Amino acid sequence: MDYIEPVGGNVKVSVEKLPSSEAVLEVDVTWDEMEKASDKAYRKLVQKVDVQGFRRGKAPRAMLERKLGREYIYQEGLDDLITEAYRNTLKEHDLTPITQPKLDAPIFEMGQPYHFSLTVPIITPVELPDYKSMHFDREEVDVTSEEVDKEIESLRTRVAEWNVVERPAAIGDRVTVDLKLTSGDQQISDLKDNPFELTDERNGLFTGMDEHIVGMQAGESKNFSTTIPADYSNEKLAGKEANYAVTLHKVEEKQLPELDDAFAEKVSDGQCATVEDLSKVLSDNILENKKRRVREELREKVVSSIIEQSTFNLHPLLIDEEIEDMMHQFSHMLEQQRLSMDQYLMMTRKTAEEYREELRPEAENRVKRQLVLEEVARQENVTVDPEEIEALFNFYAQAGQALPRSDEQIRALALSYRREKTLTRLVELTTDPDPEAVSEEEEAEEAVVENAQVAAQEGAAAAEEAKEDVGAATPREENGQAAQTVE
């Protein structure tokens, strides 16, 4: 559809929004308007250019034209006119550009009207469903005695002692071994005096190892083979045969502490005097974690349902930009683990383009999520006040994650906070009232910080996984000895 409006004076602009999520601006300028633009350009240039015989800013136009050229001044005026027409049109038609426009501007002729066009990728607003008519039920949560008992057993295991035993190794024991792992001609690991807690639920590179060590005694050596899982992250090793040479030095048995009041006081750092007190604290913690999980799952269910029922017209550049943002964030997390993106790609045997394509589905979903939340925020008039941003900076600082107060950081924080407030509003609109709900601001604050912590943990985990891959695939020499691959 075309919109034709005067932008100012004798400048007319027609705007056509294309199905490709682009806008084409066709601009017609009369020669009178070109003359006015050249006058403005002269007044601007004469303040910057020195003309012999005149103080700066006082040279007549004819003298400035003699120095710079008449066409130069007209071109300068035309450039300013193009910029002004573009900015005014974006504002008047509420267009949000994704990147710089493509300009089609032929050479102008003196005394003649002028026409130019601009093609710009834009964000096309999402068409939302009637989200206010949606309804979602809140999940009820409780805590069972079995869950509390399981948490207590986990605490007992955490503070358990290990005692050396003179018997064959069994599941649940801790063994100390020398272990060489190869696949074909490639050495994967060369571990010395490495401890393993034997389990029948091991995943990753050493899958299948434990069952062969069970039954071994101190001083015994054994060779055996397993198959590395087909879904192992290092594709070069996935599905390959793994050959082990193991020498067992020590078998230790786990000794759990007695479940008494002394144990309760120890594991709670003196906060609980009895096992009953400890059980109550654990029960409360489990309940709070469940409530937090249920709240987050409900928020995701609401926004995912709206995304599924919304209509999008996404320009590919939006997704490409999101991919670049994701790669930049991940690269920063890798740097914290002393890895570069190039090293990570080398470890995972991927090119940068292959990694980008892997990110594309998630990037597209992120863009859709952002567009939905922005449109809901606009319709619901969700805003963020400077006082809220200040409180959020303080919240981060108290959580030990102080942020730099740059303009970029403030904008990013405000955008994230607005989206979290919008999510909270959506839940309020589509569910029954939550009798235990915290304030909208508190919930949004917690969500912003928690999201940052989760992202950091995920990035660190991915970086650690990459380190394990390179340790397994390309052993390094350190101090004359092969580097150990530690599980």
UniProtKB/TrEMBL annotation:
Domain (Trigger factor ribosome-binding bacterial) ranges: 12-155
Subcellular location: Cytoplasm
GO terms under biological process: 'de novo' cotranslational protein folding; cell division; protein transport; protein unfolding
Keywords assigned: Cell cycle, Cell division, Chaperone, Cytoplasm, Isomerase, Rotamase
Coiled-coil regions, chain positions: none
Ranges where the Trigger factor C-terminal domain occurs: 274-399
Reaction catalysis annotation: [protein]-peptidylproline (omega=180) = [protein]-peptidylproline (omega=0)
GO cellular component: cytoplasm
Residue stretches making up the PPIase FKBP-type domain: 168-248
Family: Belongs to the FKBP-type PPIase family. Tig subfamily.
Role noted for this protein: Involved in protein export. Acts as a chaperone by maintaining the newly synthesized protein in an open conformation. Functions as a peptidyl-prolyl cis-trans isomerase.
Alphabetical list of HAMAP family matching this protein: Trigger_factor_Tig
Free-text domain note: Consists of 3 domains; the N-terminus binds the ribosome, the middle domain has PPIase activity, while the C-terminus has intrinsic chaperone activity on its own.
PANTHER family to which the protein is assigned, alphabetical: TRIGGER FACTOR CHAPERONE AND PEPTIDYL-PROLYL CIS/TRANS ISOMERASE (PTHR30560), TRIGGER FACTOR-LIKE PROTEIN TIG, CHLOROPLASTIC (PTHR30560:SF3)
Protein's UniProt name: Trigger factor
